[in-house]
Amino acid sequence: MPSALPDGEPVPDDGSLPAHALAGAAERPLGFYLHVPYCATRCGYCDFNTYTATELRGTGGVLASRDNYAETLVEEVRLARKVLGDDPRPVRTVFVGGGTPTLLAADDLVRMLGAVRDEFGLAADAEVTTEANPESVDPAYLATLREGGFNRISFGMQSARRHVLQVLDRTHTPGRPEACVAEARAAGFEHVNLDLIYGTPGESDDDWRASLDAAIGAGPDHVSAYALIVEEGTQLARRIRRGEVPMTDDDVHADRYLIADEVLAAAGYHWYEVSNWATTEAGRCLHNELYWRGADWWGAGPGAHSHVGGVRWWNVKHPGAYAAALAAGKSPGAGRELLSDEDRRVERILLELRLRDGCPLSLLREEGLAASRRALADGLLEPGPYEEGRAVLTLRGRLLADAVVRDLVD
């Protein structure tokens, strides 16, 4: 969750939504994102809305404490119930992210999930995920999560090489994420993800292959691999600017992506979104698919974003301000925007084109259709799906996905 928030119109104190946002809601899936904004240390590449104990000291008092955070977030879940009214939908997915959710006690995460279950109910096959730092969990912690209703877990691995982890300011020990996969399996988690990052300054092709091999060897059913983005204002950006570490370029990122796709495919992982691979259909992250397909989700927590029926809003960033708003009986929303039909058309192209199923050609205007024909001729779109009315990226198209999207949205 990036730290910068967009501008927008004010959110009503009671968080109420326009009537049109709830029209037809029963036909759309509903998910919950629960944001935990705490980290033990700040990674050098991270610009997410997270806070260490030092950063919070003196800025939020008791309201910003992680000790009572679960109860604060539960209050927003209760607010969501009031705002959505008699919405009959059980929740299809719950995703706890951060930050480092596993800095909270396992019972706190279970309590937050329990609030969603109590207020809305969970679908019988609901996917319930938490992110986890490999160093902040143990078998007992994982067992508590599993017994409490979590059935999917995502560990931040990033790399198997110590020197790469040091550049990223990651604190876990190489090998620990792989051990966590085994511990999660033993606790009863059927679905396990490992997150990897490629393109870190000083990382070689061999380093990247070693990370992929280690991740695959651990046996998760899902792997996410993201190119490192150096965000302004981060410690890593300052180090690169001072010349302390080199900056990788787009060609290096492309080479690493090709290695990832080759190695993962050979091991039985199939891409279903540009940066995500799973061994089975059941292993795909359903919560992320809600985002990519424009479904409804409520984001609870400081800085969290939500979307319901074409209305998108976001919460105040600071944990103290967030808690103070809820304590006063007000929505913590900082701003919102009402998406037009054109906004939603463009967003569908932006997001769905990244999926293995692609996006319908019917979404494209005349200029976009002309661009799609050029992309097809250039080998960026698959011919078979194109003949059936869908734009689906080839492997080369995935490497140039951002450029293809820009052309197709006119």
TrEMBL record:
Pfam families: Radical_SAM (PF04055). This is Heme chaperone HemW. The lineage of its organism: Bacteria, Bacillati, Actinomycetota, Actinomycetes, Kitasatosporales. GO terms for cellular component: cytoplasm. It is found in: Cytoplasm. GO terms for biological process: porphyrin-containing compound biosynthetic process. InterPro entries: Coproporphyrinogen-III_oxidase, Elp3/MiaA/NifB-like_rSAM, HemW-like, rSAM, rSAM_horseshoe, rSAM_sf. Probably acts as a heme chaperone, transferring heme to an unknown acceptor. Binds one molecule of heme per monomer, possibly covalently. Binds 1 [4Fe-4S] cluster. The cluster is coordinated with 3 cysteines and an exchangeable S-adenosyl-L-methionine. One of its GO terms (molecular function) is 4 iron, 4 sulfur cluster binding. Belongs to the anaerobic coproporphyrinogen-III oxidase family. HemW subfamily. Its main location: cytoplasm. Residues 24-270 form the Radical SAM core domain. Keywords: 4Fe-4S, Chaperone, Cytoplasm, Heme, Iron, Iron-sulfur, Metal-binding, S-adenosyl-L-methionine. The keyword S-adenosyl-L-methionine applies.
